[in-house]
Amino acid sequence: MDKIEEVLITLRRLIRATDLHSRQLVKTAGLTAPQLLLMQAIREHGQVTIGALAKEISLSQATVTTILDRLEKRGLVYRERSEEDKRKVHAYLTEKGMENIRDAPTPLQDHFVKQFRDLREWEQSMIISSLQRVALMMDAEHIDASPVLDVGDLDRKDGRKLPEEDDADEQENRDDH
């Protein structure tokens, strides 16, 4: 096997590992990776604003709001206006949301982060440099990305719907007609 094939196979394995983990997460917890990370951030910070959540998980405020909309529809989170500053909205987990993330598998990037942190600094720098070069070679250096290992749009409504989402969609369709 030549070096080009080795690189392409390795890239494919990375993409495939991300896809398989994403599918497993949806299957076992009914959540996408961004949804799980957002819910974990809410749990860790308690009373937290949407802007602070967006900053914490490196997503835009608009993306976080869209994800929260979907989670709220499913009864996993709720939002309330701040008593002190009515311009601020805080996100909270429901009991159902707490149970959901308690039973969810560990996000793929958590495994990676643990192992990456154990590397020597020069090894970390080499990996970063190599991956940045690969992104450049694939004309992907200008693509906006967050530090979430997942496939597809971060604010997507996953194609593998949960039963309660199907019911909600059918109700919305009836309401639209």
UniProtKB/TrEMBL annotation:
<dbReference type="Pfam" id="PF01047">
    <property type="entry name" value="MarR"/>
</dbReference>
<dbReference type="InterPro" id="IPR011991">
    <property type="entry name" value="ArsR-like_HTH"/>
</dbReference>
<dbReference type="InterPro" id="IPR036388">
    <property type="entry name" value="WH-like_DNA-bd_sf"/>
</dbReference>
<feature type="compositionally biased region" description="Basic and acidic residues">
    <location>
        <begin position="153"/>
        <end position="163"/>
    </location>
</feature>
<dbReference type="InterPro" id="IPR036390">
    <property type="entry name" value="WH_DNA-bd_sf"/>
</dbReference>
<dbReference type="InterPro" id="IPR039422">
    <property type="entry name" value="MarR/SlyA-like"/>
</dbReference>
<feature type="domain" description="HTH marR-type">
    <location>
        <begin position="4"/>
        <end position="136"/>
    </location>
</feature>
<protein>
    <submittedName>
        <fullName>MarR family transcriptional regulator</fullName>
    </submittedName>
</protein>
<dbReference type="GO" id="GO:0003700">
    <property type="term" value="F:DNA-binding transcription factor activity"/>
</dbReference>
<dbReference type="GO" id="GO:0006950">
    <property type="term" value="P:response to stress"/>
</dbReference>
<dbReference type="InterPro" id="IPR000835">
    <property type="entry name" value="HTH_MarR-typ"/>
</dbReference>
<feature type="region of interest" description="Disordered">
    <location>
        <begin position="149"/>
        <end position="177"/>
    </location>
</feature>
<feature type="compositionally biased region" description="Acidic residues">
    <location>
        <begin position="164"/>
        <end position="177"/>
    </location>
</feature>
